[in-house]
């Protein structure tokens, strides 16, 4: 951490500030220029907050030199992390496709989707039981009943399931879920992050719509801080000014996660654009950029889906897209999980 | 809702879509142009979701004509709403200043802050017990103990309190809190919104960092949908590309809320910039634009605050700012709540 | 400028880099921590470019400590600059309202607008002769003929004029224009900035839609670098995610310009929202925040304006708004220019 | 174009508005709902401006149904456009790599770069003679001398050249340049767009930092409107909130251009991130998403480049990246131009 002091700062106040840092166990490098005094803080600066230091009147600027995240930082864990779930490996070259409908609607629907996406080559079944909706008047999901139907689909097909949690109160309901998804709007729901940190479940952490990579990795750090190291990151489109699509895939998230963290990252090309004709080109970009997997919406009847139909592939379209995905994963030397 | 169909759409599919709308109790106006067919949907369209309609292959575009929010919409409730809390009125010309430290730290601190902001003219004491922090390694607040200290400060000074809730599980702890704040990062924590909707507490709903006005008002609609109509909106800065400030006050939020909703809106000039030298000019702009109040961070010793010191005024600075605020509220013809 | 080096950097490469800085006449403060080496560069760092330094493989991060702008920086020119044009003062408490139609359309129209805005209290006539339009099929302005009509309106009313330049080739046409406006889309048209820097005309420099304050002030620095110090800054709304308005007034620009620069700043509440019902509340906020003036669209017949009618006040509405503006400028202790 | 009228609008005013549209040669579909009246305008609506229509007091909302661009619209030109320059084809499966230094610095440098990028497989030499720089104190390019050196490099190597124009006044200087680049900051420099529209040179049009796809395509439409149909689009990163990279590649631009336009689109992975370690992963994503080419910064000595060194590959790194690009272009079935 670098602290730039204001010109002509009162000596006594500067000493007070330096004492504060020393008290925190930090070492200080002191640089006196013609009109600028700079303090370089060495040691564990992750506990420091820029805003707190700025509160000292003598401080003009504060700049982090090292990342504020530790446990998820590649610097301290150079090897790729592999998450193992239900016999599938995720990360480090192991490539997974998670697919299924936006919402679970009934047994026939979810089982048909599960069978078809499995046959096409997906390794996980996704489906929403609890649905975050912008409007209180929209369909909110089948909730607990939806979880039961997902588990039934798992029983019938053997596909492990990934589904979203929306409340700390529901954790018990997710006991048999294979991967718990934390949605984009809850990326900084810190209480839920802490609760998930205390569980041992694999977590699919979706990036917030306007979150920076640092904030995204700090959310993962929250889960690690609670003791749970099974975190899969998911980029699902950020908010930009573009009007032709609902969100906008941040493809740079893939190489940036690979540089700064050891965690696997998968891409959601369905939410990333909000239109099904973008799923294939964005999936291709994601694989080429180095993503560890994809999570794709596929529905037996998108026009009658109870939500997000615009971005869902029908099951035949999904078959076609999967063939293309497999060919590309092979080209990249990834191992497709069955 | 307007639905633009693709050129040369299959007749049968169009009829299927029209049947779907008729089944939902909507009336359809049908416009056939040279190469475009447009459906105008009349009736209660708040249950419709653009994405769901886009799922029909014959649909090219969907455009809302009326706002998706009803209960908070000024069209259906033309008079300004006044929220009454602890003898104070908020909205419709009644102006409130809520002030206090970012975090409750100990009894002496919170009581001193309460006494001083009350003396200066604040009508509510603010203070954080549960603190949303980007890093798990930062101070997370005194939690339940912090709430007790706030209530003690209220007992000693008579100032009603406003403080942030971060979990559905904590609602009981907030039984004696006067206004429950829902933070920006939880603006779309739909489960918590629903829970607060079922309570009868006044809610201070902070706008998310990248939320549109429609999303902001839809979050308020969630609380209304549960039966709780005591909602105070709070604009606290949005994320822009500006680097000199942490967030950026969206001053347009004030007149837009006044046009589209009947709810009161207050401004948080402390978080809106993240630097204390911006609090006064932004407060002035907020009052002039028509805000119903301000929520300001004031701390007895900002340099040693346990969080967000950079944006906190010290108590003498707060005195000065309050004198200016009073003079301006009077100029605008507002009634300052004591 | 602070340069953070990578861990375990090759000594020889570090020395090469340090030699490079020394060759540029900079002094270096050298801080060696446990695992980080930091160089603090002292001297005139405005010629340094972060990207160039990052090119050295040993460099991990570069951070400016001082602003890259000098001539427009308040640090080196603490007093407010006052621009004098046609007998009007702008800045340092002297408040100006510039008003008129989006486009000059014909003599009767521009003269009527000029007479009426003058009578209402405007000190400058604004009007577009060259119009930047998103579409090549939209009305592009009367061009040279429009400039003649503006000058005719000036002759008849005595109001000095402000109008936009779009090409270096047109500078001669602007010889009798009082203030030359550089539009938002040309804020980083560096050739035009240089050309205007070589003239001695007062320049109204509009901020780009997504420009940071630093970029905005650097554009002003370009004009200063050419020798022209008559620059008036203008904030006219930035691009945000909000859909209810076309642009979004960045009210923070006013206090930030006042802190970091000595130049006057005026606000354009018409473009800042793109809807006329926002002009009055935004004007109020601008005055309260400390703006040095306003530039407002007023048209004799907005519904038949050849562009931007949605944001134009009609002349009666302008009268009403001006009365409110005068009362507020007086409250703030500003001197209204007639 | 759809025009939604306000409730209870005055009949006479509505008729006036309808007359206005009829006078413009448009046909009107009229839909009367319970409380909403909607006008559907049919015919050539590209000359209509939303703001102008909004100026009518009876209008509540305006929504385009068809794109405002015609000449560049795929609807009216379904086949991919192929641009032919100096014996190279661009678009429709023909893949080009343009490479070279940020700035031309001297003959030895530019010739070495040209020879090496040609040997590696680039089909065009890029290099800046006129440089848009944020600071007036940064190196501004060798200007006319730089153009001469580029032409000399072309003479010695046979590589056609692409370089940026910054002023209408310079067009004559670019007579022998093969492709004229229009930079991101000038994307809406409408006078320069018109001037380039009157020339017959191939134009590489770079997308503005915050431009929407519609604005980007409208800029191309300006060039077409002048008669020049040789336009190559270039996505070079947009501004987002991410701090780890300077700009952020909008990968969706590739499939969106392919859907909405017939023009070729190439990607600039160097500017898109501003760091050289991102060039390879972003190039891979671009090829997979369907881009028609890449423009890459490669310099013989990035650490001593006079600008943008941080994002330049050295010539050996470029060799490596090119091998990877060729393998991937082949996998996609593209034809690499030599």
Automatic annotation (TrEMBL), chains A, B, C, D:
<dbReference type="InterPro" id="IPR041071">
    <property type="entry name" value="DAHP_snth_FXD"/>
</dbReference>
<feature type="domain" description="DAHP synthase ferredoxin-like">
    <location>
        <begin position="1"/>
        <end position="67"/>
    </location>
</feature>
<dbReference type="InterPro" id="IPR013785">
    <property type="entry name" value="Aldolase_TIM"/>
</dbReference>
<dbReference type="InterPro" id="IPR052899">
    <property type="entry name" value="Class-I_DAHP_synthase"/>
</dbReference>
<dbReference type="GO" id="GO:0016832">
    <property type="term" value="F:aldehyde-lyase activity"/>
</dbReference>
<dbReference type="InterPro" id="IPR006268">
    <property type="entry name" value="DAHP_syn_2"/>
</dbReference>
<dbReference type="InterPro" id="IPR006218">
    <property type="entry name" value="DAHP1/KDSA"/>
</dbReference>
<dbReference type="GO" id="GO:0009073">
    <property type="term" value="P:aromatic amino acid family biosynthetic process"/>
</dbReference>
<keyword id="KW-0808">Transferase</keyword>
<dbReference type="GO" id="GO:0003849">
    <property type="term" value="F:3-deoxy-7-phosphoheptulonate synthase activity"/>
</dbReference>
<dbReference type="Pfam" id="PF00793">
    <property type="entry name" value="DAHP_synth_1"/>
</dbReference>
<feature type="domain" description="DAHP synthetase I/KDSA">
    <location>
        <begin position="87"/>
        <end position="323"/>
    </location>
</feature>
<dbReference type="Pfam" id="PF18152">
    <property type="entry name" value="DAHP_snth_FXD"/>
</dbReference>
<protein>
    <submittedName>
        <fullName>3-deoxy-7-phosphoheptulonate synthase</fullName>
        <ecNumber>2.5.1.54</ecNumber>
    </submittedName>
</protein>
